[in-house]
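Hi U.,

Before I forget, here's the chain from the pilot set. I'm dumping it here mostly so it's searchable later in email.
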Amino acid sequence: MGLEGLMGQVERMGAGVGVAVVVMYALWTWQQAVLGAGSKRLQDFRLVRVLKTTDTELALLGNFASDWKKKAAVVVIQTAPLNAGSLAQLLAGLSLHEILLNDIYSTYQGDVPRDIKPFKINVIYPATEGHVRKHTDQKFHMVVETKEAYRKITKPHIESIPAEKLEWVYNILGHEVERIIFEDPHPRTGFVLLPDFKWSDPSNVESLYCLAIVHDRSLRSLRDLNGSHLKLLRNIRNASLEVLSEKFGVRASSVRMYVHYQPTYYHLHVHFSHVKMIH
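Structure:
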């Protein structure tokens, strides 16, 4: 329903419900801008600046023209894994433009058919300053974090993070997310296993990427682990490898298991990715 249809309803129903209809129209406008169908969902996006560009990813900061508050939006465009099942379609419709020809070697730029979906698009809206920083190109340094540095700097920082920053993690642990593929509900040694958003094509097991998120909310990072947590860690390793083998046919020797420090978010989680994944 467009603006004219909504205004017609206002006239028929009277001013008493006019406010409700205006709200409906505002929601409709937002949906058209952000959640619209197919290839038109980003037609309302207005670029502010490019945050980061790599060989496989482009991160953009902007807003939506229909959002009068101009709340920030981060759009991350990534090259999607190739699906071997659509190779015939890809090769048949691929248009090549020569870049370099040297003896037996040649390089081309290729245009893919419309039916091939070459990109994965992630939209964060409204985006916080933290989201913007995360997706902005940054300089990296190797540092040594001593016990004293952790106590004086890192731990106070972790404790200052508002609980709502982890609400999406608690939603997963509270079964509000349907993507969970395994759970051990024990409060101390239990965890949930689910696909990470990086695993955009579950049919391609060589791009496998899963997360094991522990139930114990007192464990924020690697720094909180000690000998008493060996049972938890062994449970995560053994149960996850068994599930990945049974559900996806991926053998333990093809899985890389690791944790990040510093992590992206401070609730202990373990990464499981296929050894062919590029990090």
